Amino acid sequence: MGEIRIRSRNNGEINLTEANVSAFRSGLKGRLLLRGDDGYDTARTIWNAMIDRYPAMVVQPEDIEDIVSAVNFARENELLLCVKGGGHNIAGNAVCDGALMLDLSGMNSVTIDKDRRVAQVGPGALLADFDREAQAYGLATPLGINSTTGVAGLTLGGGFGWLSRKFGTTVDNLISADVVTADGKTVKASESENPDLFWGLRGGGGNFGIVTNFEFKLHPVGPDVLTGLIVFPFDQGKDVLRKYRDAVKQMPDDLNVWVVLRKAPPLPFLPEDAHFKEAVIFACFYAGDPAEGEKLLEPFRSFGTPYGEFIGVQPFAAWQQAFDPLLTPGFRNYWKSHNFAELPDEAIDVALKYVSDLPSPHTEIFFGLVGGQASRVPEDATAYSQRDALWACNVHGRWESPDEDQKVISWAREFWNASEPYSTGGVYVNFMTEDEKSRVTSAYKPEIWNRLVGLKKKYDPTNLFSMNQNINPNSA
After folding, report:
1. What is the C-alpha separation between 51 and 47, in angstroms, rounded?
2. Cβ–Cβ contacts within 10 Å for residue 417, how many?
3. Cβ–Cβ < 8 Å for 259, 220
4. In the chain, what are the domain boundaries?
5. Which residue in 148, 156, 142 sits closest to 127, CA to CA?
6. Which residues contact 446 (CB under 8 A, 6 or more apart)?
7. Taking residues 352-359, what's their average pLDDT?
8. pTM score, two decimals?
9. What is the per-residue pLDDT across 441-462, written as a single tens digit (0 to 9) for each?
10. Given 34, 152, 278, 419, which residue has the most CB atoms within 10 angstroms?
11. pLDDT category, 2, cuts 50, 70, 90?
12. Interval 264-272 mean pLDDT
């Protein structure tokens, strides 16, 4: 094996001796992988094909003690540390060239207490793992819209999904978290234990420690819910979106309707001449009685003359997987995001203009409707403070070949610039790419940011946990 060259936190390099690495390995119950070892390439691979990086060492822990050992080893040797949960983050911070990588994907347990309506969730669990266990008892909590998303990263950034209008954000449903802090200690964070840390974990990302267990409150949902798509021709877009914008302000919390602007997939309920044409798509979800949901969706059908629709009762877990094909591994991805409190005509015009010239058939713009209960929580109750966002708009650039990189990325940035005047100025931190480090403060209200910097100074003063949308302890 010989010496291992590994990156330090000051962007230099350190030589770890064979004896040092062997001693570290022998103290682990899990695996320590080096480049060339079986499983190394699988561990370093995440869903975004633009991220192709080679950590110096990968630790795959078996338990919390292994996580503590890895944190201590990184701190004591001044190593650059990156942490992978579900491996779904757009910025790719889970993997870093030359770093010590902590791969938590194997710690994906989900345990449901159906009587107390509480879930215990490991740091490597995906939404699919959570949905499978919780829906066995007809229970759920607001957790994103794709089953391949990691629970940990989604939660630490705030988290929202189909259920957020009814039950709030993901962090509004977090009861407690078990955390390994930068000094190698294991602590519990909740409203009654280390409440300052609990506040920061709920939206502050992975800046304050490594969460080894999440405890969520659960709600009766499904197992069958009313869901589906209504697809309108693109030339009706302006009228459809204006009517939609006005209608959502009177919507009940049980109903959620997202807007997706993209080329229509070749879905069986659409006429063949609509396939691969630009379209305005309503993604509809109703958490209550399906018969009532049908009545509430009827006006949305009348906003134009749809190409077609597929609305019906299906398992909640199946709906959570409906958009997984849009985020399969192997494609190149780049996002730009804004929050909107209103959708003025000018914002609608900008969106339609850019969708009329999509740079890739896989690229889309969506407006994820939040509001409802998520907007009623006080702004300073959690580190996630974007409570004024009625829509989280994400430009989802997605393409196949590196030859297309410049075209798609430039298009996404141009749309972002053109739509910025109509946004709140805020952004959902989980939608931010690696090149937006200077924009991290936009994910938080100013007073929230100042509080987060103070918390970082307390729990991670040397910035051991820096591979994230970073809150530097020395920030002004």
Report:
1. 8
2. 11
3. no
4. 4-103, 110-221+449-459, 224-436
5. 148
6. none
7. 98
8. 0.96
9. 999 999 999 999 999 999 999 9
10. 152
11. low
12. 95
